[in-house]
């Protein structure tokens, strides 16, 4: 699943998404281009806020233009200060903002700033509370959050209802098969088992042919990848000349030769990052789309081959089980992971952490917060926003998500960004490279030599790394898809084998004890089957009600 799909899935369950970016892991000049596009594609708009960590990895000269509100270890807790302070007048007296209407009612329009300055904090807080009661904002938020909580609860009911429906349907099929074989004679059993063994051999031969066909298909997809990276690399080689030309057009680095050399190095690297950003994202999107097509083709081709090869009407139930399992395993990229990670994460967020109280508090703070917020200047001159926001803790533990790290790694950048995209262009312009520029204590620039150096020591290795990881991703997606598709068949055949062995054991026991089949077993099985059918019918009715009443927010 690509990043946009994950964001879109979580966006269905949450009211706000706050990206958390680590400067230790993400390329310094690239995340500003990638992240807003990813969030906007999944959320439908740009993110309102981004939280950054590991700011100590960057110099202050870089942090300043990146972070609008740096918040570090020097910012101590000011909860007590907030509770005895008022916000800045300029923060609340801005026409068009939510806070303005309330402030205008309290201060009026005649000399409001003077009136505001003479108000004590307790008086200000008291009139704010009165205005909140008069506006009935609390009741409006309560109704709003109740509707939100009910919407999300309905969504969870629908998802879990679908899962329960699949479980009940499987139990119904199993009991139908159990009842159909209870009256089967020993001869009928042996004939059915012999037919099953023939089908199993037929599946083995079919899988051999299918593997050969898929190897050819995998080679075709790999050839498309090689061609794509070749075209992309040709475009990337022009980046060196473009970055050099743009950097040389700047006049700043010519002013002081003692410092301009270092500035030139930094400037050209940043320019290359900017120019390479779109090419990198094009390649990543292409590989993901190619891998998804490859994965889907594995399952589709196997499904078609089964339907064309196996035509024994006596094996309809077995065939239905195999095809249903292939549909479930081949639904999307998530199925290639052993646990269903994404849905567990979403379910944990909604079902265990989200409720009407927390939603009410979140919306209330978003609306009322500006009126109870003080803007101060910290000791180092950096502005910081302080908001008295109450938080609710939950005693519920997060759902445990158990997986193996290798599962994520083997799927490459289908579930994460490629390592090559995260890596920065190396600081390659060292002493050995500067030899062609330094002569008699003067710096002379051979543009052609510089561009060749950039291409050979930065651009080509960069795209080689991206190509290598793209190949690894595509290979692992193909290998994992093949294994999962074959697993669907093997598991179904093993379950069928166990059914025959259980029936054989039961018949042997009846013969050894000279006991006829007991009607009570058939009656109990029939009773259970009827209960399952009734439960399935009721569950489908609930699902229809959830959908028709539009409680579910898809």
TrEMBL record:
Residues 377-400 are annotated as: Disordered. The keyword Transmembrane applies. Residues 387-400 have a biased composition (Low complexity). The keyword Transmembrane applies. This is Uncharacterized protein. Keywords: Membrane, Transmembrane, Transmembrane helix. The chain crosses the membrane at residues 413-436.
């Amino acid at each position: 699943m690509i990043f946009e799909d994950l964001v879109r899935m979580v966006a269905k369950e949450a009211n706000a998404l706050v990206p958390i970016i680590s400067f230790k892991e993400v390329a310094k000049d690239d995340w500003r281009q990638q992240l807003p596009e990813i969030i906007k594609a999944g959320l439908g708009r740009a993110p309102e806020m981004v939280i950054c960590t590991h700011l100590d990895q960057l110099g202050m000269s870089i942090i300043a233009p990146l972070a609008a509100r740096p918040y570090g270890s020097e910012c101590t807790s000011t909860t007590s200060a907030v509770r005895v302070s008022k916000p800045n007048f300029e923060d609340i007296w801005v026409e068009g903002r939510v806070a303005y209407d309330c402030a205008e009612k309290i201060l009026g329009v005649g000399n409001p700033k003077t009136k505001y300055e003479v108000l004590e904090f307790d008086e200000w807080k008291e009139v704010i509370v009165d205005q909140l009661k008069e506006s009935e904002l609390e009741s409006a938020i309560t109704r709003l959050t109740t509707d939100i909580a009910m919407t999300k609860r309905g969504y969870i009911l629908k998802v879990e209802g679908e899962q329960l429906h699949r479980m009940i349907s499987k139990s119904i099929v199993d009991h139908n098969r159990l009842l159909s074989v209870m009256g089967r004679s020993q001869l009928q059993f042996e004939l059915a088992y012999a037919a099953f063994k023939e089908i199993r051999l037929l599946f083995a031969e079919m899988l051999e042919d299918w593997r050969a066909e898929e190897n050819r298909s995998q080679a075709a997809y790999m050839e498309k990848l090689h061609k794509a990276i070749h075209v992309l690399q040709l475009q990337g080689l022009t980046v060196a000349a473009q970055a050099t030309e743009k950097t040389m057009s700047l006049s700043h680095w010519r002013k002081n030769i003692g410092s301009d050399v270092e500035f030139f190095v930094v400037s050209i690297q940043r320019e290359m990052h900017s120019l390479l950003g779109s090419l990198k994202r094009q390649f990543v999107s292409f590989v993901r789309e190619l891998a998804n097509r490859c994965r889907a083709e594995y399952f589709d081709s196997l499904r078609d081959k089964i339907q064309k090869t196996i035509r024994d009407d006596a094996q309809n139930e077995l065939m239905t089980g195999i095809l249903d399992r292939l549909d479930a395993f081949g639904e999307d990229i998530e199925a290639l992971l052993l646990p269903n990670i994404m849905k567990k994460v979403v379910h944990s967020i909604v079902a265990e952490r989200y409720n009407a109280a927390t939603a009410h508090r979140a919306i209330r703070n978003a609306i009322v917060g500006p009126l109870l917020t003080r803007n101060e200047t910290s000791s180092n001159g950096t502005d910081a926003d302080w908001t008295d926001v109450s938080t609710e803790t939950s005693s519920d533990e997060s759902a445990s998500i158990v997986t193996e790290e290798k599962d994520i790694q083997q799927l490459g950048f289908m579930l994460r960004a490629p390592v090559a995209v995260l890596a920065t262009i190396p600081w390659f312009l060292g002493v050995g490279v500067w030899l062609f520029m330094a002569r008699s204590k003067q710096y002379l620039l051979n543009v052609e030599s510089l561009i060749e150096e950039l291409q050979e020591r930065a651009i080509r290795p960069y795209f080689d790394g991206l190509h290598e990881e793209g190949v690894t991703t595509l290979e692992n997606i193909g290998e994992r898809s093949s294994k999962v598709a074959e697993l669907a068949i093997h598991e179904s055949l093993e379950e069928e084998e166990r059914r025959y062995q259980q029936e054989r054991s039961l018949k042997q026991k009846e013969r050894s004890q000279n006991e006829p089949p007991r009607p009570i077993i058939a009656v109990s099985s029939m009773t259970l089957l009827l209960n399952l059918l009734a439960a399935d019918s009721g569950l489908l009715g609930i699902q229809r009600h959830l959908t028709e009443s539009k409680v579910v927010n898809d």
